[in-house]
Amino acid sequence: MALFKSSTQDIPEASPVPRHIAVIMDGNGRWAKKRFMPRVMGHKRGVETVRDMVKQCIELGVEYLTLFAFSSENWRRPPDEVKFLMGLFMEALKREVVKLHENQIRLVMIGDRSRFDPLLLQEIHAAEKLTEHNRRLTLTIAANYGGRWDIMQAARRLVHAHPEKAETFSEEDLSAYLSMHYAPEPDLFIRTGGEQRISNFLLWQLAYAELYFTDTLWPDFDREAFMLAVNSYRKRERRFGRTSEQLTGNA
Ligand code: IPE
Ligand code: IPE
Ligand code: MG
To answer: Which residues of the sequence carry a binding annotation for substrate (predicted)?
Structure first.
C-alpha cells in the first residue's frame, strides 16, 4: 500500500493550506547584480529568505517544504560560484541544524550524492540522523537533484530489486523508489525570479501541483510575497481531471 494518494491513480485531498510546497529559489544572481555586488552575495542573502520561509511554514501548518538548492545542471556554472555554493551549504548546515532539531524539523536531502565532498556528505548524514524522528515540518533540500535522474534511479533500483517485475511494474511500485517516497506530492509549486519553467525539478511529483510564478527575486521573497502565493493557491479549484460541477455536487 502506498503511503500517500497518487494524483493520477486516486484523488488526493485538496486541503486549504498546502500540505507540501516545492520551491525553485531563483533570482539570487540578479538580485546581487542590481546592487552592484558579486552574484554570490545574492546566494548568501537567499539563505535568510529560507529561514523566514521555514518559520512561516510552521506557523501556517505546512507539513513538507522542498527547496531546490542546486540542480544537476548547476555544475555548468563557473567553478568559483559552484565552490561558494557548496561552502554556503556546509556553513548553513553546521549553523542551523541544532535550531532545526529544537524546532522539531526533519531535514532530508535528495539528489545524487556521488559528486559531493566527503566532509559535506558527513555533515548531511549527521543532520538527517539527528532530525529523522521530527515531524512538525519536513524540510527537504534538493541538491545535485534532477527530475530525470530521479526517475532513472528509481527505475533501475526497482528492476534490480524485483527483476520479475521488469515488464509489469506499476506507478505505485516505481514511486516507492523515488527520492520523495516519504512525502505526498506537492500541492503548490513556487518559482521566483520571473522564469516560467520547471528546470528539471520534481518532474514526476509535480504532475498535478498548482503552479505559481512570480517576478520577485528570491532574496526579496518576504512574508508578504509568500502569502500572495498561498492565497493564490487557496483560490484554485483542484479538479484532478473531473468537472467543476462534479466538485460542487451539481453534476
Ligand atoms: C538561484 O539563483 C540559485 C541557484 C541556482 C543556486 P540564480 O543564481 O540562478 O540567480 P539568477 O537566476 O542568475 O538571477
Ligand atoms: C534552477 O535555477 C535551479 C535552482 C534554483 C537550484 P537555475 O537558475 O539554475 O535555472 P535555469 O537553468 O535558469 O532554468
Ligand atoms: Mg537562475
So the answer is: 27-31, 39, 43, 71-73, 75, 77, 191, 197-199
